[in-house]
């Protein structure tokens, strides 16, 4: 169910379960809240297992200070209340201690979101709040004053992070994106100098206006592909190959039509009816396709053998995209067979530079491309084939990171590569 239709109790529980499931908090750490239209604050309780939280555990603190619920509110309630008082535009708050953001907090550093266009747009302004004892009025003042200065995300010295949003989905997506950036930066720092984007490159480009496709009932094939894309998008999200805000999938229909994921929709809430049928210059009425739609259309035009396209930013592969470090696929046979040698393009916008990017794609020779500070572009004969390549890409990059403390990489020799090319038809 779309989170906007959930009661605050249920939305808080579902969001906390999601945060806990993906190891972005611990059993006892973190708290979430929603400010209701009547001024009441719905908040997660103190001393209740985050992995087994239920709707009945959620507490509501009314404007007059009275409380509804089985438990006391989180011990961090003072800073939630103070943020809402100082920032009326904020309607929901996420506080947690995810590993990468804690790493930045204990080093007193701010994750530089200028490494990716959408991450920079989603996260907004980031600032630090001075340390104070958890649960204290002083900590509440420190955090609220930082928010009052215009921050969207507040890093806490030696503590974690607090993030506000116009609703809980907005706050969660900002939180998840910032943690993803922090994770990727931690990995990229091990590879070398991190490349950041200029102000001009950080401008988020929208698709040109699209005409409306004539209304047509979906064929059985289209229904199948819509369902398949939803299944693989959600599978990709669960395996952390996508975040809730970034990543697009498409599959070819007949002629020049294809089905693609919509723009800025939570990847776990995607349903077949929400997919967008599109061509190079038109789409279904009333829908917005992914900003990568033009790129996907051009790839299908130029490559009749391509049946599916994915844009994704998995953390290990993205670390290579943020640096000049070479990505070797000559590690194990599967990596070379599935990925071939992976070229890297200098930073290119999937909207403005779609023609340039599409010209490099080839299912036989270049099924995977890394785009500097943008992520991975993967193609396949079908959705399963493309997803398999994406998985292998991230697994290969992770193995390269895990091997670094052990010693230098020993790639497969040329003779082994030649044999793979011959036996498996790699060009």
TrEMBL record:
Q: Which domain of life is it from?
A: Bacteria
In this entry, which stretches build a coiled coil? Answer: none
Tell me a Gene Ontology molecular-function term this record carries: aldehyde-lyase activity
Q: What is this protein called?
A: Aldolase
Q: Print the keywords alphabetically.
A: Lyase, Metal-binding
User: Mind telling me which GO cellular component terms the entry cites?
Assistant: cytosol
The family database entries (InterPro entries) matched by this protein are listed as:
Aldolase_class_II_sugar_metab (IPR050197), Aldolase_II/adducin_N (IPR001303), Aldolase_II/adducin_N_sf (IPR036409)
Q: What is the lineage of its organism?
A: Bacteria, Pseudomonadati, Verrucomicrobiota, Opitutia, Opitutales
In this chain the Class II aldolase/adducin N-terminal domain maps to 10-186, 227-401
What Pfam families does its record include? Aldolase_II
The answer on whether this UniProt entry bears the keyword Lyase reads yes
Write out the GO biological process terms: pentose catabolic process
């Amino acid at each position: 169910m779309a989170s906007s239709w959930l009661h605050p109790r249920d939305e808080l529980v579902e969001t906390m379960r999601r945060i806990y499931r993906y190891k972005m908090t611990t059993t006892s750490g973190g708290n979430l809240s929603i400010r209701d239209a009547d001024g009441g604050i719905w908040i997660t309780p103190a001393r209740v297992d985050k992995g087994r939280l239920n709707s009945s555990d959620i507490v509501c603190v009314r404007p007059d200070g009275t409380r509804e619920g089985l438990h006391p509110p989180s011990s961090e309630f003072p800073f939630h209340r103070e943020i809402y008082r100082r920032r009326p535009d904020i309607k929901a708050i996420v506080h947690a201690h995810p590993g990468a953001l804690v790493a930045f907090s204990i080093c007193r550093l701010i994750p530089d979101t200028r490494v990716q266009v959408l991450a920079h747009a989603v996260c907004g302004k980031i600032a630090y709040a001075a340390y104070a004892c958890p649960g204290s009025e002083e900590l509440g003042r420190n955090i609220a004053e930082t928010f009052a200065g215009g921050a969207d995300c507040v890093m806490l010295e030696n503590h974690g992070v607090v993030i506000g949003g116009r609703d809980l989905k907005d706050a969660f997506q900002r939180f998840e994106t910032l943690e993803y950036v922090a994770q990727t930066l931690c990995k990229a720092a091990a590879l070398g100098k991190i490349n950041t984007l200029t102000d001009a490159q950080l401008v988020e480009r929208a698709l040109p206006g699209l005409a409306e496709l004539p209304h047509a009932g979906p064929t059985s094939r289209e229904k199948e592909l819509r369902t398949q894309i939803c299944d693989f998008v959600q599978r990709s999200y669960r395996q952390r190959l996508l975040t809730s805000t970034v990543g697009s999938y498409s599959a070819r229909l007949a002629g020049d039509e294809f089905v693609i994921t919509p723009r800025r929709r939570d990847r776990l809430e995607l349903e077949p009816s929400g997919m967008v049928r599109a061509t190079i210059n038109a789409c279904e009425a009333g829908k917005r396709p992914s900003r990568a739609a033009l790129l996907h259309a051009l790839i299908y035009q130029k490559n009749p053998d391509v049946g599916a396209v994915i844009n994704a930013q998995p953390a290990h592969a993205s670390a290579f995209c943020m640096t000049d470090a070479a990505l070797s696929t000559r590690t194990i046979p599967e990596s070379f067979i599935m990925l071939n040698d992976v070229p890297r393009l200098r930073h290119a916008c999937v909207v403005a530079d779609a023609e340039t990017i599409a010209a490099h794609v080839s299912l036989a020779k270049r099924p995977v491309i890394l785009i500097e500070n943008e992520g991975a572009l993967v193609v396949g004969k079908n959705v399963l084939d493309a997803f398999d390549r994406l998985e292998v890409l991230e697994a290969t990059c992770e193995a390269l990171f895990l091997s670094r403390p052990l010693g230098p990489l020993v790639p497969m020799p040329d003779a082994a590569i030649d044999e793979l090319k011959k036996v498996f038809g790699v060009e």
